Amino acid sequence: MAASNHEGGTSMSALNRRDFLKTGTAALGATILADAASKMLANGRSVAEAAGPEPEYEIYAAKYGGPLFRKVAIVLWNVGWDEDGPINYYVWAIKAKNGEITLVDTGSSPAQGAARKVPGFVDPIDVVARIGAGADSVSKVVITHMHWDHVGNIEGYLRAFPKAKFYVQQREFDFCVKDPVCLRKPVVVVFDPAAIKIVGDLERSDRLVIVDGDVNLAPGIDLFLAPGHTLGLQVVRVNTAKGPAVVGSDCAHVFRGYREDNPSVFIMDMPAWIRSFDKVKSKAAIDLIFPGHDILMDQNYPKVAEGVTQLV
Asked: What's the confidence (pLDDT) of residue 256?
């Protein structure tokens, strides 16, 4: 017969069994939730869904330059050397219902914009300000990759958005900051060494977050590693009123790239790009995957401010 602590009390063995069951059940539940969250991310759904309904966001394209005319074959792998077509230069803004903004890319610095003769150049900071991106509203900046037109304005962004943390993939950081190959002539032409140095100097600071692979950035916002265009490009999957949408940056330069399974000519690793393309297209409907430079983002979506359109 089990011993009792006091007259009419519960036996110690019963208490131990009850505590064991509580602890075991809690641990099992945590394991199941963690496993479910991992599987949800792998299947193209946000980790945040494990905890309940995701918040919905709006996505904006902010044009800071263009149109620039170049051979179509540059934005579609060797298809159309006899055709000219326009591109624009963009950064993107992801806006929450409470007004908090996550920016995607910094765009080019004014100095690089002038040096590279970007037509119609406007400082990206001024463009995103037209939809409320300011010192108090911007909490995060995602660096999709470190080409001059996507991270060149890092110095300006650090000043303009003092509360923001900047997110870059480990592979991209290591190659651009630490690998001397990045400074070789065929490679450095699409990078901005001054901007890369600024990012490198942020290592171990509280302003830079170096992520490794697929991660949840916030409820309803995920980062997915998608190498190919560069060694560590990342895309941003966002929950919206229309469902999941992807800010794909230069995984494809134009919408045709996704429809025709064809990248730009600026590819550092073609097998990796093909795998990334399949991965990105599994994360959202194709009409909700947005490329890096297509003029249609400026032409086919509602204009909410000068140079700014609402994609979703």
From this structure: 96
Average pLDDT over residues 258-284: 96
Q: Is residue 26 part of a domain?
A: no
Best CA proximity match to 157, nearest among 143, 175, 178: 143
Total domains in the chain come to 1
Q: Are 129 and 207 in contact (CB under 8 A)?
A: no
Question: CA 46, CA 55: separation in Å to the nearest integer?
Answer: 11
> By three-state DSSP, how is residue 119 classified?
coil
Cα dihedral 251, 113, 172, 73 in deg (nearest 10):
30
Residue 179 Ramachandran class (φ > 0 left, ψ -120 to 50 alpha, else beta): beta
Report the distance separating Cα 40 and Cα 30, nearest Å: 15
Which range of residues forms the domain containing residue 263? 56-303
CATH for 170: 3.60.15.10
Global confidence as pTM: 0.84
**Contact criterion met (CB below 8 Å) for 307 and 64:** yes
Tell whether 160 is covered by a domain.
yes
Based on the number of CB atoms within 10 Å of its own CB, is 242 exposed (0-12), middle (13-18) or buried (19 or more)?
middle
Q: Map tokens 């977050």 to a residue.
A: 209
Residue 181, burial from CB neighbour count under 10 angstroms (0-12, 13-18, 19+): exposed
Q: Is residue 212 part of a domain?
A: yes
Helix (H/G/I), strand (E/B), else coil: 150? helix
Indicate whether 34 belongs to any domain. no
> Average pLDDT of 71-93?
95
